[in-house]
Every structure is written in C-alpha cells, then in structure tokens.
Amino acid sequence: MRTFWLTLFALGAAAVLVLGWQGGEPFTAAAFVVFFASRVWRSVIKRPLVPRMDDDPVRRAHQFLVVSAAGWLASGTLAGVAALAGEGQEWMYVAPFFLIMGALPLVLLFHRGAAWHR
Question: Which residues 6+ apart lie within 8 Å of 94 measured at CB?
Fold first, then answer.
C-alpha cells in the first residue's frame, strides 16, 4: 500500500514541477516538492519499506536528522531564490524560517552526536 502512495506522490511532484515551470514559478514549485519529498523520505526512514535484520536505531535517527535538515535547508534556499526571482514576496519571510529550521537538526546532530555513542 505504501508503494502505491509513494508512486502517487512521485506523479504529483512531477505535475507540480511541470505546472510550476509553465506558470512561471519554477522555484516555488521546486521548494514545495523538495520540502514534501524530504517528509516522504523521513517517513521511509522512520518505517522502512523492507525492515533490515541488522537495524541500527541510532543510525536511522542520524539519517532522520540529516534528511530533516537537508529538506529544510534545500527548500529554504529555493524559497529565497524564488523571492529574489520575483515569484512572491512572501518567500522572503518564509526562507529565513526554513533555513533556521534546517540548522536546528544539524546543531542537535553535531552537539549531541558524540553523546549518543557513549
């Protein structure tokens, strides 16, 4: 069932990118797709499609934090580019928030990372 939803998401993401490009707002569309793709990726990390016999919860937690940070930072960067490209002034308010939210998991990962291995 999850494979169906992942396929449906991929088709929807492609449609959003195409419509965004045709509508003159490619960076806005890309920001949405990157943000929601990171959420999908996080859900797959949280509940893998195929459970591994040698599952390491600490490794998955680190992956979860990295994917969270990457999603926020990439969508924040694209939101900033969208604002500079004239795709909507509201992105100037959203982009800094997204970038801050992207930095927080990295701070947690690097600050607490050594303590997780003790």
Answer: 76, 79
Give pLDDT tens digits for 15-47: 999 999 998 999 999 999 999 999 999 998 988
- 75 near 33, Cβ under 8 Å? no
- DSSP-based three-state secondary structure for 48: coil
List, in order, residues 6 or more apart from 26 with CB less than 8 Å away.
17, 20
Q: Which residues contact 75 (CB under 8 A, 6 or more apart)?
A: 31, 32, 34, 35, 38, 98
What sign for the dihedral angle of Cα 94, 89, 74, 51?
positive
Instruction: Name the residue among 57, 59, 68, 58 with its Cα closest to residue 106.
Output: 68
Where do we find the tokens 């195409």? 18
